[in-house]
Amino acid sequence: MTAEIIDGKAFSAKVRGEVATHVARLKEEHGITPGLAVVLVGEDPASQVYVRSKGKQTVEAGMNSFEHKLDADTSEADLLALIDQLNNDPAVHGILVQLPLPGHLDEDLVINSINPDKDVDGFHISNVGRLATGQNAMVPCTPLGCLMMLRDHHGSLSGMNAVVIGRSNIVGKPMAQLLLRDSCTVTIAHSRTKDIADVVRGADIVVAAVGRAEMVPGDWIKPGATVIDVGINRIDAPEKGTNEDGSVKTRLVGDCDFASCAEVAGAITPVPGGVGPMTIACLLANTLTACCRANGLEAPQGLTA
Ligand code: GUN
Fold first, then answer.
1. What is the rounded CA–CA span in Å between residue 182 and residue 155?
2. Which of the following is catalytic: 98, 117, 177, 204?
3. The domain boundary residue, chosen from 116, 149, 184
């Protein structure tokens, strides 16, 4: 069997298009423009790229983008004061503090100072609790993107066996909660799981989110299963030659060995071009959801969990 490739690039474009349509309607019918504030502390190059991309796509969807770039040595008090200002700004419906933060800042304290209704990352402890108890939560963007792709592919997920590999707060745990809410039988596998190959072999749905290049081989996959690969790992690619400075060229791979998994799976997301593009699309969807809820309006179905 050769797996169907789930095209995250095309699917994320569709989601962004739907968000833009709803944003245009919000403006026309209610005079409201959703606004997303992104806070970047320091100059981490990868974070700068993400933040630029988030700002660009926010504006393309017709929303307001507010960027706050702070020096790496910004004090916790100054950062908390900015978050307080954004919490109280009616033009700001979503707040995202780009992680990781410099070491002198307490990430939990900072995240939990965001108004949970504006926490478009879904990292606030209240949103974690709301998700676990089935209340209106803001849901972390990457798991939400995975869920949207799974629902789009399967329709109902009810009764399916799902194995999530990885137990991070950002992906593994919320992913498991979302699959449970959609009535899957959910197992979370991790570095201490015994006989992990057998555990994964029982899965109709595999979500790999460990951050280890190509750790899931095709012979762990049940024939016909759906494989969602959240990993984005850069590895050496000597076959591509060397850069001008003599260093070996690199390439991106997922947590699954794509070639062998695609021979067995029914469907699989590639890396790049799978889950990755869905994350920002879901950030825009969450900002729209937060804006609707802040104004007493129903959030659009299909763009929330
Ligand atoms: N850094 C890498 N990914 C993310 C994300 O999804 N949200 C935030 N806030 N920071 C990140």
1. 11
2. 98
3. 116
